[in-house]
Amino acid sequence: MTAFLGVERSLSGRRWQGPDAAQDRAAMALTQATGLPELVCRLLAARDVTAGEVAAYLTPRLRDLTPDPSSLKDMDKAVARLLTALRGKERIAVFADYDVDGGASAALLLTWLRALGHRATLYIPDRIDEGYGPNVPAMEELATAHDLIICVDCGTLSHDPIAAARAKGADVIVLDHHQGGETLPPALAVVNPNRQDEDSPLGHLCAAGVVFLMLVGANRALRAAGAKGPDLMAMLDLVALATVADVAPLQGLNRAFVRQGLAVMAARSRPGLTALADVASMTSAPSSYHLGYLLGPRVNAGGRIGAADLGARLLATEDAQEAADLAQRLDHLNAERRAIEALVLEEAKAQAEARGLDGPLVWAAGDGWHPGVVGIVAARLKEWANRPAVVIGLDQGEGKGSARSVAGVDLGASIAQITREGLLLKGGGHAMAAGLTVDAAQLPAAMERLGVLLAKQGAGATGPQTLRIDGALQPSGCTLDLIQQLEQVGPFGAGSPAPRFALPDVRITFAKRAGEKHLRLSFADDQGGRIDAIAFNICDTPMGHALEQHNGARFNIAGKIEIDDWGGRLKPKLKLDDAAPAQAQP
Asked: Strands, DSSP E only, in 335-379?
């Protein structure tokens, strides 16, 4: 395919790739059939939306997209056991993972139970001392004091810990979404759309989505018995946060979860999320960007480098003062996490470059790397190299790490396979993210085998230099109306990327540094159109130097347009991703 605008190599070293001919034809047909702007139709065509599906896609309704919870294996058993515990005033414990999905899943259950007059115990393991998922000592301790343990966002592979809880007399329910093994643990119910004997089309749900469906089933059972369940629509802010933060694809039911959840969050009725938005200096209505880059990292910070239960406690609390205190603690921990992450990321990039960036996988491992940041460093490494990434912290001959994938490459399945082959001590996850434990001596062989499996799925085939472009427009065409119409195709995130447009042959009318690393710019076209822009972390790069010292040169630029509400005045703004000289590329 010809490079978009002829940009074979941009100032950041990337080749611009635009829509193919089939997408162009589909977009034109949608424009003619619907009367929507061409750029909106380009986004719809890229998502394979037909003319007859446009109205439903632009206004997704949970009523239309929510499946019968009973379609998931073991769901009815899980619902029945939960209600039995509720009616019998049994002692319930919630065992959750320490990330956003686990915290939000736990908060969903705690909130639902509390609305029915039941207080449950929250238990979240310490990342360093206990590691991911249920462990035997913790489950035995919980089982001696509780009748029912509900494991959320974990448990599918926890055979021994669940058996230990059962031996102490407690029932266990697992609500999870991670890849399952050939056999299931001895729980009363394992509700997981990704267990191997499941044929559900809901494998894209995060754990909070699975928990929400169980609560839908529980409310339905309560209605059948003449009782009223809690308001589940008011809890969709938690589901939305977990879905975005866990990088679940924003398609189908997930998309409806996030769309509705953002509307709930905008009402600022949950003390924890309100306090978190305030410490994160959110001044506009929440978007998927805010969930993924402002709120999610702060909720995660407790599990990464602080007390593991801080995030879940924040999301579940009803007390505004407690929420404010917890949000401040998490904000401080997040700042500390960012400093640690920056050091590890620098070393990880150096290792990856030394190994080469042309393979299907990038990976790095280091002694003493904090296990709480390896996941987010893997995500940064994946974005930087545009291929699956693994980052591992080594300690006394053993490595614990995290892996992140790119669209279309099922990383969890490959991690599970090399675990079965004996190359990993432990490993599991889902398509976009996974965790692993490895003997340091086996590390090179494990990564080589993982690379082979990922290559079979096409990982690395496009190379790290490709930049996707959805279409072209001029600064004069970047209107508030267009941006608002484009946002109807959202929310944007994993599986539904935010649109990126190219602005061809523009001149720079303003360029000034913002802090040490960022650049504020203004671009103009020859029709009198103008747009302000921000380029993050580019001042010390060749692209930053070229734009700052432009000397009147003209550029093709690429980025995402959004609404800037700074000072209360709405105007279009571009987040610049890339640039290239407007003349023919070498």
From this structure: 362-367
